[in-house]
Amino acid sequence: NTIAFNPVDMFIPIVQIVIIPIGLGLFLNYKFPDFCEELKDYLPALSSVVIAIIVAGVIGVNKEAIISSSLVIIAVIVLQYFIAMALGFAIAYLSGMKRKQMVTIAIELAFQNSGLSTSLAKTHFPALTLATVPGALYSVWQNFAGSILAYVFTKYYNNEE
Q1: What's the CA gap between 22 and 45, in Å, rounded?
Q2: What angle (nearest 5°) sits at the alpha carbon of residue 54, between those of residues 121 and 61?
């Protein structure tokens, strides 16, 4: 079996979901720094709510399929997360970075854009009903594991260079 997709068609949503918002944010910060400073406290919460709604929708629609294949999907998600985290640490260590930089690189590598992957899967693979599930479950996992890791890194590594 093969899955056909057009890379150009897939690139357009990436631009819409990632590049345009970043560019807009940079522009607004440049042109209206005071206004953006006022919004800084509210936008992370809004972003979290929107992501939670998307994840809840995907999980709700696919709950039966998730239950039937959840162990395999969850095992792969957790494995991918920790491999990415370990690679981030290894690359940063081999590059001679300090501990805080190593933690930052490891977290950045492990935290993928699961919202983007869910959106791309839904748009470009509509016949594959389970295509959106890994991205949605990864979002749940990275928020769960990320909270724990944030606590650990803050408690044990905050004062180290």
Answers
A1: 17
A2: 75
CATH among 3.20.20.140, 1.20.1530.20, 3.40.920.10, 1.10.940.10 for 42-157: 1.20.1530.20
Q: Tell me the per-residue pLDDT of 99-145, one tens digit each, with 9 for 90 and over.
A: 888 888 888 888 877 778 888 888 888 888 788 888 888 888 888 88
pTM (two decimals): 0.67
- What is the rounded distance in angstroms from the CA atom of residue 59 to the CA atom of residue 134? 10
> Which residue reads 């999907």 in tokens?
73
Of 138, 121, 117, 129, residue with least CA distance to 5: 121
Angle at 136 between CA 89 and CA 23, to 5 degrees: 70
What distances in angstroms separate CA 146 from CA 2, 12, 24, 52, one per listed residue? 35, 29, 27, 15
d(C-alpha 101, C-alpha 105), whole Å = 6
Structural domain boundaries of the chain?
42-157
